[in-house]
Amino acid sequence: MNERERLLRRIAEVGFAMFELHLFLDTHPYDRAALQMFDSYQREEEALRLEFNSKYGPLNTMDVSQSNMWQWVKDPWPWDYSFEEGL
């Protein structure tokens, strides 16, 4: 697994954990441990997205930064299959 794949996988893992915690917090809004865990995952996800964006480009249109061109269409896109990389 290359670094790009590792980052994508970790972003997915953290996103899944955040989604599950979000559902838990809907029914347990005062659980301090769950709130702290959610905040921790949220900070980690932001750092991972920034790292991915700086190395490989935006993951979605919300990650596009101001520049001289619309970076969203630059290849490769995160979900593109690549025979060379074995993705």
Helix count from the secondary structure assignment: 2
pLDDT averaged over residues: 83
Main structural class = mainly alpha
What's the total count of β strands?
0
Tally of domains: 1
Give the biggest sheet: none
Please indicate the percent range of residues in DSSP E strands (runs of 2 or more). Answer: under 5%
- CA-atom Rg in angstroms: 16 Å
H/E series: HH
Distance between the termini: 8 Å
Q: pLDDT under 50 segments (min length 5)?
A: none
Shape: elongated
Q: Helical content, roughly?
A: 55-70%
Q: How would you describe this structure in keywords?
A:
elongated, mainly alpha, 0% strand, 87 residues
Description:
With 87 residues, this protein is mainly α. It has one domain. It contains two helices and no strands. Helix 1 runs antiparallel to helix 2. It is elongated, with a radius of gyration of 16 Å. The N and C termini lie close together (8 Å). The model has no long low-confidence stretch (mean pLDDT 83).
Which helices and strands, and how do they pair?
Elements: H1 3-27, H2 32-56
Brief overview, please?
The protein has 87 residues and is mainly α.
